[in-house]
Amino acid sequence: MQVEALVFDGALYADGPFLPWRPSSAPEQLKQWQRELLAVVNELAKLENWADDAYDVIAQTIERQPASTLRSDPCILN
What we know:
The chain is mainly α. It has helices spanning 27-48, 52-64, 67-70, 72-77.
């Protein structure tokens, strides 16, 4: 019995790697999207008088969030 080797060519296979979708964009564009989202969060934090700890958690989350979720967040918050 011959066993086929797994091929990791970017396709999603039942037992293959997890390859989450992300927008096709340059690193600078991703940074711009982070800045836009952070600007919205800054304004909201000021309006709602967020505690520093709460703001820090959200700001750190923006820095670490996956690119696949980054673009939709400012649209939802605006």
